[in-house]
Amino acid sequence: MSAPPPPLPSPLPSSRRDWAALLAQLGVRPSKGLGQNFLYERGIVQRMVRSLGIGPDDLVLEIGPGLGILTDELLLRAGEVTAIELDGRLAAHLEQAFAGRPSFRLVRGDALKIATDAVIPPGRPFVVVANLPYAVASAVLRHLLEQPHRPRRMGLMMQKEVVERICAVPPNLSVLAVATQFYARPRPAFDVAPTVFIPPPTVESAVVILDVLPEPPLPNGLHPRFFRVVNAGFRQKRKQVANSLAAELDLPKDDIVAWLTGQGIDPMRRAQTLTVEEWVRLTLAAPVGVTS
Ligand code: SAM
């Protein structure tokens, strides 16, 4: 058996100065609106890809490949990489930089508007890896989790404060934590300092790994009701959950109290103390008025 061919040399720069020069050469002035903080430390992307255990059998979806530092590492480890980039100048650069890589596919467009089934063959397992644009990071996360075709695992670099919110436990849950933990088991992987980006962001970053559940705890048809109940419970966060639900769902307080106590939940608790499992039970036992 002949040895596998050596990996292709990276088409990308290796020093901070050369990454900055590449940006200048492409005429890209990093846009805050598009969350353009580009990594230049290879050690960070190597650690990220290693933490996810990506191998030759994996199909990876990358969101926002930018200049391609993470893409380059993914192409070394994964079987295939599909990447979605919104900025046309970066898309043109990526097409050129990775032109000789048959395992790379670039999709131009807004990741928030693209269904996973439009870019990943239906039914095929895949992993999402991304250094997300911070302004839309939680929206991208929810978009991916709410797709009928969900990734089996995700490794996302985001604002550290958002990672902490996603991984929170009772009594510190939020709608974002409940919505994420309904679909996945998140765990923080490691922190990333602002100094490894061009330009450095004003906030700390962190990587979160999410193991997506094969099935969420409720069938698809009940997801809208689940989110209606959760959103209503959290709308008036400082209030007791019974008061918030009564006000938002426009139901008599007595009915709400009976609903909560029937599920063993003290009506005086606050929304952020309820577990995902308790929200699921409330959804299943919801009174008429919530179900209709
Ligand atoms: N992956 C690169 C890295 O680690 O250096 C770039 C990460 S940068 C934080 C975010 C990237 O997402 C940018 O390339 C930006 O143009 C792109 N982007 C922003 N909004 C996007 C969207 N809605 N859909 C797809 N890509 C987007």
Automatic annotation (TrEMBL):
Its EC number is 2.1.1.182. SMART domains: rADc (SM00650). GO terms for cellular component: cytosol. It is found in: Cytoplasm. It comes from uncultured Thermomicrobiales bacterium. Residues 44-214 form the Ribosomal RNA adenine methylase transferase N-terminal domain. GO terms for molecular function: 16S rRNA (adenine(1518)-N(6)/adenine(1519)-N(6))-dimethyltransferase activity; RNA binding. Specifically dimethylates two adjacent adenosines (A1518 and A1519) in the loop of a conserved hairpin near the 3'-end of 16S rRNA in the 30S particle. May play a critical role in biogenesis of 30S subunits. This is Ribosomal RNA small subunit methyltransferase A. Belongs to the class I-like SAM-binding methyltransferase superfamily. rRNA adenine N(6)-methyltransferase family. RsmA subfamily.
